[in-house]
Amino acid sequence: MARNRFGLGTAISLGGIIAVSPIIAACGGGASYENWAATDGAAGSINLDDVQSAFKGAKSATDFEQRVNEIYEGDGLILIRAKQDGDHLTLEGWEDLNNNNEIDDASDDKLFSIVKGTNDEYDMRGHHTNGYYNSHFGAGNFLFTYMMISALSPRGYYYSTPMSRGTAMRNQRGTYRQSSQYGRQVQRNSSFSNKQSSFSGSKYQQARNNVSSNRRTYQSTQKASGSFKNSKSISRGNSGSFRSMGRYGGGDGRGGGGLMRVLGNRNNDYRQRRG
Prior knowledge:
By secondary structure, this protein is an alpha+beta fold.
């Protein structure tokens, strides 16, 4: 039976296992839209513990933007917007679903927000599929102070990721996703998901189904156009395993014939089968 190939993929090491992206199908089957829609990247889920750590350690807005995009597994860039609202400072992270390098409230998806109140206390909340997450913490004042100094305007404090940075951010993230560092980040993301699923229980599961209307439109467009077949999102099993969203047909990432099928679990095992 002839194999159908959907795009070209890159195999990246995930600390002892291999994840293959984008989707490649075999024998006319291939990864379905439903498989893609269930990935963290397609759903807009992000490791907010690592985002919080990035916020605390960032030395500039650019530093924070780069780190958040390294954490996230979706296809769109994460753009940030920060503004002053009375005595509060609010920073938001949005996925740029329409790829125009700026935040559009009517078409993009807000993933998280960090609000600075009085006494340098911070409240971090996840939105939509991340809605189960709520964390209160101190520290992290450096980034807000830096951004306020560099982004004062006649209308008060305001910052948004510059449109001109879009291409450079995509290139940097593309290079990062070919590295072993990304493999380790994916493992961290999986551990975070497992922890939150156990800790938050039904709240976590309910949030996973709370997809924003903007993201539903995005997913419908991806389905209608078939663009989801080119996604770089990583599929996981319920146990936290990593795997490709399809099967490798016509090559195993090294130019040879055969079939690579990716399996994984918490012991980081994998298996290759060549035909």
